[in-house]
Amino acid sequence: MRRTVEIVLSVLGVIASLVMVGTGAVFLYLKDSEAFLQYLEAGWSESENAYTLYQLGQAGTMFILPGIIGMVLGVCAVVLLKSNRRPKFTGWGLIIVSVVMCTISLFGAIPAMFFIVAGTMALIRKPIDNTER
User: Fold this and answer.
1) Which of 57, 81, 108, 119 has the lowest CB atom count within 10 Å?
2) DSSP letters along 19-84, please?
3) pLDDT-derived band at 131, boundaries 50, 70, 90
4) In terms of pTM, does the model score above 0.70?
5) What is the pLDDT of residue 48?
6) How far apart are CA 50 and CA 70, in angstroms?
7) Within 10 A of 92 (CB to CB), how many other CB atoms are there?
8) What is the CA radius of gyration of the chain?
């Protein structure tokens, strides 16, 4: 049985996870960027600057960690689905990965939507039995 829809949804989840990692890297870069620090010092108070830098560091970590988890396990799911081996295991794996991503960070819900749908489809779809014909 071809599992094209599950593979496409898993790849979309991996791409969304990649975007999350990129966004988190930008946040961490901005936290240490001299030009951004000068921009902050020009218009804001010292306490606002400190709070903003703290939030950028936290947001960067909360984007990167679930993004990396989603990328690695999403690629593994694509490989398993492409070979059509153990689709039930892969479906449960995708669902568990999406729950873990959402538990770590709420921002992980974006790629988790793709993983949940792909995992559910992998669990529900049954292979066509050609021996009855």
Assistant:
1) 57
2) HHHHHHHHHHHHHH-HHHHHHHHHHS-HHHHHHHHHHHHHHHHHHHHHHHHHHHHHHHHHHHHHTT
3) low
4) yes
5) 86
6) 31
7) 14
8) 20
